[in-house]
Every structure is written in C-alpha cells, then in structure tokens.
Amino acid sequence: MLTFRNTEYQCPMELTLELIGGKWKSLILWHLGENILRFSELKKALPKITQKMLTQQLRELEQDGLVKRFVYTQVPPKVEYSLTHAGRTILPILTTMCQWGLDYVAAPDPMKACVPASGSLSGICRE
C-alpha cells in the first residue's frame, strides 16, 4: 500500500498513472520536455485538445509538482510553462514509450511484438 496526498494506492504504477495518465498529460509533458512553452504554443502542438481540457491538465500537472507555471507581470499578461525537476525525471520514460510506439508499428505482427519476458515484472506491484 502506498499513500500520496491522502490517497491510498495499491501499487506504484497506480500512482504513476494517476499523475501522468490519460490522453493528454504525457503529451503535455513530452512537449514541455523540449521547450518552455506558452499556453498558445501548447495548444498549437496539441490541436485536438480543447482549451478547457488543456487548462485543466496543466493545473493538475502543476498541483502534482510536474509542471511550473511562470506569470510575467506585464501587459498583456504572459504565462509560460516548464517542467519541474520532478517533471524532467519522467522524460526518459516518455522517450522509452515513444520508442515502443515506433517499434510496435514497425513490427510485422504488432500483437506479438512487445511481450515482456516471463516474470520480468514480478514483485514490482505485489503486496
């Protein structure tokens, strides 16, 4: 059992997916891994996301300590988003996920391409 912010998780993977799971969070982190971006630049990089959803996801990532929001005191207002140190630590995992996607698509039979070795995950999420 793992507790984070008054929520109990059965496994570290459950917590990880809570923090970076969903359709957009990993993509937002991926784009911020390359550059500090303004909201409009993120929206342009993710054209299918709604403004409301992008705002919500950025707020959650900021609350979870993965993204930093910097507001410049100028007119018109300027806000930039960047990864925190904790956010940067997820980049190698996202890079691996990206490579997995490339390997999966390139495999002659994608359904058999990425089967983990027997027992390779044993003990990670066991009580």
From TrEMBL:
CDD domains: HTH_ARSR
Keyword terms: DNA-binding, Transcription, Transcription regulation
Record organism: Propionispora hippei DSM 15287
Domain HTH hxlR-type: residue ranges: 11-109
Name the record gives this protein: Transcriptional regulator, HxlR family
Organism domain of life: Bacteria
DNA-binding found in the keyword field: yes
Pfam annotation, one family: HxlR
GO molecular function annotation: DNA binding
Keyword DNA-binding: yes
InterPro entries for the chain: ArsR-like_HTH, HTH_HxlR, WH-like_DNA-bd_sf, WH_DNA-bd_sf
